[in-house]
Amino acid sequence: MAVATTPDIEHLPAEEVLAYAVERWQPRLYVACSFQKEASVIMDMLLRIEPEARFFTLDTGVLFEETYETKRVLEERYGIEVDVYRGISLERQAELHGEALWNRDPDACCDIRKVTPLQEALGDVDAWIAGLRRDQSPSRAATAKLHWDEKHDLWKVNPLADWTEERVWEYIERHEVPYNPLHRRGYASIGCTHCTQPGGGRDGRWAGHDRTECGIHA
Ligand code: SF4
After folding, report:
1. In Å, what is the CA distance from 176 to each residue of 70, 80, 86, 143, 172?
2. What per-residue confidence (pLDDT) applies to 201?
3. Which residue segments constitute the domains of the chain, with CATH numbers given?
4. DSSP-based three-state secondary structure for 191
5. Which residues contact 86 (CB under 8 A, 6 or more apart)?
6. 196, 205 in Cβ contact below 8 A?
7. 43 or 4: which carries more pLDDT confidence?
8. pTM confidence score
9. Does 112 sit in the ligand 1 pocket, CB within 6 Å?
10. What is the pLDDT of residue 64?
């Protein structure tokens, strides 16, 4: 695809960023859902603009039961079905790479369970939406609301890039949006069971390892 100049939409509020994305790319627009609180906000906001919006999730097979339950609750609330992409089975992973790959080599584990399924999910769309916020971690401080994603060869939209944690909660409470209950138990960021502990920002992710990103947003 030929890459056009990136339009400046930094000044737009989240609703208008989403409206822009719908206008420009729907139905070749796909929303990544981690079932953290930002995904709940985006789902609620986007479905008010475009009831046919499409959502997907990466199921690593080792997500928290609360995360699977949040998926079920959101699907029921909005009458939608979130597409699921998975890597190879955990059994096959153990055969090929041994047990506890997430501990010995989290890069390889995330490649198999997240990065490769994401490539499959994004293989036939022109843009994707994610819930990154600049104040989540230093590595996300420069997140743009819209940029060309060279790794996946398509546009990436981060409508909540300039939102604070407080603003996310304010939206959730005002609109009574279902959210992952783990957030109320000290988990600011929620990933896989093996690699997530309670903590602020992204401190609880891969605790003990020198990494804060799994490769899908890096
Ligand atoms: S977050 Fe942990 S368990 Fe999940 S894919 Fe990455 S290394 Fe594997």
Report:
1. 14, 18, 30, 27, 5
2. 75
3. 14-184 (3.40.50.620)
4. coil
5. 58, 59, 60, 61, 113, 117
6. yes
7. 43
8. 0.93
9. no
10. 98
